[in-house]
Amino acid sequence: MLRYLHCMRLFFLFCLFYNSLSFFCSKLGAQQLNPSTSKSKKLFEEAARFLSRNDFTNATIRLEQLLNDDSLFITARQQLADIYLRQKEFEQAAKHYEMVSKLASDLTPSTWFGLGESLLNLGAYAASKQALTTYLSKVSTQTNQRKAIAQKYLADCNFSLSERKNTQLLNIHNMGASINSADDEYFPMLTADRSSIIFTRQKKGGLEYIYVSQYQDSAWKQALPIPGKVNTESYSEGAHCISPDGRYLFFTGCNKPDGKGSCDIYISHWEGSAWGIPHNLGSPINTGSWKAQPAISPDGNTLYFVSNRKGGFGGNDIWYSTLQQDGSWGVPQNMGDKVNTSFDESTPFIHADNETLYFASNGWPGFGNKDLFISKLDHEGNRLSPVNMGTPINDHLEQRALTVSLDGSTAYFAAERPGGKGGLDIYTCLLTEHLRPTAVAYVKGRVFDKTTGNAVKAAVKLTDLKNKKRTFYSEVDYLDGTFLVPLPVGSEYALHVLHPEYLFYSQHFALADTLTEKDIYAVKVGLERISSGRSAILNNIFFPTNGYELLPTSESDLMELFQLLQHNKHIRIEITGHTDNTGSAQANQVLSEKRALAVYAYLLSKGIDKTRLAYKGYGQNNPIADNTTEKGKQQNRRTEFKIIATDYGK
């Protein structure tokens, strides 16, 4: 799809070049413009007929034959160079533009534009700069689209000449024949546990399909079409993303019967062994404009995508839509001038840290064609101007669709590179520190009824205890109750699992600034129904050592407990405090009572009737773990609540 749009733009430029040629040709001598033989004239006329039918292959053959006998026929040579440029055969285009520039430097400024663009796409930045500068000097008093593009190309040359000396020491590896083929492969997306990589493959006929490869025995297995009902024989399905838990696949489908435009965004759910029937996301995301390349945020609440819809900066822009409380998607918003330009932006990927955005662009200064960029947020949450990811990730060839592992260390991206399997291949490398997002661990679990063992369709919420902001909110998988929650390193988090008919589950995670210890946390969440005698641990209630004043980081659990009482007016609870066996039993008894009292007092301050509350300290008498280890002691130092009645006020 991207290549199609690029070709259309090149064809448009070719038409401009060709149409402008007649004006400048009138200023040159006939000897340079007309065929010198009847054979040349016939071939030139045949080439013109093929061009009128957009048959560039046969037009090229005729013009090459013509120039073998009539090498000074510069009009034909200019035309041939324009065709080669349109077909992205940059070496051939540059060769013929160079000859035209020597034979007739004033034939048309388009010669210098075409030469500059061809050389830029060959990575010959100094020579390209010279050609583009010549072009701009010849059209200095004009204002047109090509002039703006030439200025952009010149900026690319200046950027490349200054930046290529800063090449990073990155070892970039082709992912091999199990994933790459003679076809184009792109949009690599990893599941959080890195056990699967899902990517798009474009077959020779132009249709796209989604493939998957499994990582087993320290190697990627031969990729196969994803199982299920996403891929079809008649339409393109690709340019996709996958939710971190691997349960939801967002993808681009083109020209499908239920589509609203040329390409729409669809969603499919993993049904246990295959992908289910896709659903069109509908309006306001899908409209009559072109939409493609979705990227879902780690919490599933923001969908980024690419579109040429009205209201953008020009070309293809990156947009986003947020999930509303009723489950619908909100009106898409443009990401603004810190991301989008008047040229094309594409292939967004939002990392699991929910801050770092990677995307491709030919609008920001780069090495030619499309480069990969990284965009981060400042401390106030404002997006900073993007940074080119530099060499050797970027070069004068095409790069697109980069994704980064949760721990931030490894990048996977598509590029055209020498020695590849053919066209776009998928490559991987370790990133240098300045290109990495915030590392992210994750907690993976399943929610079930503690009595029956059946899955419970609960909500999962994550709160950053340092800034008290909710960083994640979603529902568990509706089939099996599983969930996956990202945990950016460098903070402490409260995890809550909520269902109106159950006592809530509370867990605490403290992550250091690195993932040297652990990056996967597995939990089993057995929920207790709200009934007499049931209890739950408040794992996010904190006190100073040997103290009983509630610390600010306790607020998340306190509020969940308050909400539980608010929504269940007929229950009475007892708050219980517990300690480990460090110190005297009497001191521990007093401390546990005062800590329970602190929670009791908080609830009273929020307006809960005191007749619905009781508190008690148990000291060190009811351990739930071994007091001989520090981990066991930490588990024993806890605050709980227990339902003591469910008929209050009845």
Write up what this structure looks like.
- By secondary structure, the chain is of the alpha+beta class.
- It is 26% helix and 28% strand.
- Strands 2, 3, 4, 5 and 6 form a five-stranded antiparallel beta sheet that branches. A four-stranded antiparallel beta sheet has the order 1-21-20-19, with no helix packed on it. The protein has a four-stranded antiparallel beta sheet with strand order 7-8-9-10, with no helix packed on it.
- The relative contact order is 0.06.
Give a nutshell description of this structure:
The protein is an alpha+beta fold and 650 residues long.
Can you tag this structure with a few keywords?
650 residues, alpha+beta, five-stranded antiparallel β-sheet, four-stranded antiparallel β-sheet, elongated, disordered N terminus
User: Could you tell me how far the N terminus lies from the C terminus, measured between alpha carbons in angstroms?
Assistant: 65 Å
Overall helicity: 25-40%
Helix-strand makeup class: alpha+beta
Report the total helices: 12
How would you describe the shape? elongated
